Amino acid sequence: MHIPLIDSLEKYRRRNPVRLHVPGHKGGQALSPVMRQGDLPGWDVTELEGLDDLHNPDGAIAAAQQLAANLYGARHTFFLVNGTTVGIHALISATCAEGDMLVLPRNAHRSVLGGLVLSGARPVFLEPEIVPEFGFAAGFGKDRLKQLLPRRGVAAVLAVHPCYYGVVGDLAGVSELCRRYSVPLIVDEAHGTHLRFHPALPADALSLGADAVVQSVHKTGGAFTQASWLHLGTGRVQREQVARTLRLLQTSSPSYLLLASLDAARQQLARHGGDMLDELLEITQETLRELTRIPGLVVLGKEHLGTCGALDHDPTRLVVSVKGLGLSGYEVGRRLAAGYGVYVEMADAFNVVAVLAPGTGREDARALVRALADISLEARRDAGLPRVVIPSPAGPPVPPQVTTPRRAWLSPQRSVPLEESRGRVCGEIIAVYPPGTAIIYPGEEITPEVIEYLLQVRASGLHCQGAADPALRTVRVAD
Ligand SMILES: Cc1ncc(COP(=O)(O)O)c(C=O)c1O
Fold this sequence. Notes:
Elements: H1 4-14, E1 18-20, H2 33-36, H3 40-43, H4 60-72, E2 76-80, H5 83-95, E3 101-105, H6 111-119, E4 122-126, E5 129-130, E6 137-138, H7 143-148, E7 154-160, E8 167-168, H8 171-180, E9 185-188, E10 212-215, H9 217-220, E11 228-232, H10 239-249, H11 256-292, E12 298-299, E13 312-313, E14 317-321, H12 329-340, E15 342-344, E16 346-347, E17 351-355, H13 362-381, H14 405-410, E18 413-417, E19 425-426, E20 430-433, E21 437-440, H15 448-460, E22 463-465, E23 474-478
Parallel strand pairs: 1-15, 3-4, 3-7, 7-9, 9-10
Antiparallel strand pairs: 2-11, 5-6, 8-13, 10-11, 12-14, 14-17, 16-17, 18-23, 19-23, 20-21, 20-22
Helix pairs in contact: 4-11, 5-6, 5-10, 11-13, 12-13
The protein binds pyridoxal-5'-phosphate (PLP).
The site of pyridoxal-5'-phosphate has 11 residues, from helix 5.
C-alpha cells in the first residue's frame, strides 16, 4: 500500500520550499496560464487521430515547431520529450560517423557519452580553464581549436554555452573558425533557453552562428521537466539525419503534456519573455548586492573571468563560493535545505549554485540571503573547527585514449578495485564537481595520476557522476 515516491514529493511540497532550482517555472509560478488553466489529466494523451505524430509531424506539432523556429530564427525546430540529452545524442549521431573526430571541451555534460557510443566517434578534447576562487571549469582557448580544425576527419565541434555555472566563452569566435573550415558547430545550450530575450544577458548560440542548438526549455524557459527543443540554424547539419536518430531514440508514446508545455512556453516567451526577465534581473541585482555584503561569501561576476576562454556570465545563475566560511558547498546546500527550506540547484565542494528564473519571486531571493547570512554567522562562530580538504580542481592530465568510447562501452566489462586498475582501459565516464569535467572517459587508460586523483576525491567525499560505483571503491574496466 506504500507510495514512497509520492510521500517524498508531498513532504517536499508541504515544506513550502524556496525553489532555487530547475524547472524554471518554480512550482507553477511561471508556468504559462494556458498550462495552469488547462485540463492536464484530460490532455494526458499521446498520438491520436487529429493530434499529429511527433516522428513525422504535419499537423499541430509541425505548426507548434514552426512557431518555435520562427521565435528563435531557426530553419527548423524539433520538440524533444527526453530532455536535451536526446538532442545531444541526435546531433552527434547526425554529424559523426564511426571513427570521425568530434572536438569538444572536457567539461561537456555526460550526455555526450551517449552520442559518442551511438556514433562511434573519437572525441578530441579541449581543456577548459579553471575559474579561480570558484574552482570550476569553463570556456576554452581557441588556439588548440585552430590547430585541430584543419585536420582531416574532424566532423563536428561541440560547445557548451553557457556551462552549468552560467559562464560563456567566445562562441562567436568559435563559430567563425568552424565556418572557415566548414565544420558544423553544435551547441549544448541546455542552460540558455532564456538568453535570447534580454539584451543584458549573453547572446544566444543561434545568434552567434551555431549550426544546431539544443535547449532545455524546462530549465529556464517555463516548460515541464524533460521538455526540450532542438533548433537547426543552418543547413550544415542534415535535418533528416537528426530526425532519424530522434525516431530511433524517442518514445513512440510522447507525452502531450510535455509537448503542450513547449508550445505554451514558446508563446509565453514570445509575448512576455522580455518583461519577465526585466523583473528577474532586478531581483538578481538586489540579491547580488545583498550577498556580497555577507562575510565569507564571494559571488561570481564577470570580474572573476576573462583570462582566455571564459568571457561572460549569465547573472541569473547565482554562483556563490562559500570557501571563506570554512564549509564545503555540500554542507551549505544541506543546511540551506534542512534548516531553511531553501533548495538550490547544485552544490559542489566550493560553491552553491542557485537558478533564478522568471518564477523566482523577490521573497524567494530574500530567503536565500537571510539563510546564507545566518549560516555565515554560525560558521564564523565555529571557525576553530577543522576545514575541508579538497583535491586541486585542476585535476589529472587527460589520459591517453586507447580506443573509442563506443568500443570500450560495448566490450565485456568488469569492476575492479580502484587501486588495482592501473593501466586498464576505463569502461565508464567519471565526472567530478568541481571542476565539473570528466576525469576519465570510456576508452581511456587509467593512469597513476587518475587513480591518485580519484583516491583523493574518494577521501574527501567529493561527488562524482557517471560511475557505476559513486563511492569509487571500484571502477568499471573494459576487457
Ligand atoms: C550542460 C548540460 N547539458 C545537457 C544537460 C542535459 O539536459 P536534460 O536534463 O534536458 O536532458 C544538462 C543537464 O543538467 C546540462 O547541465
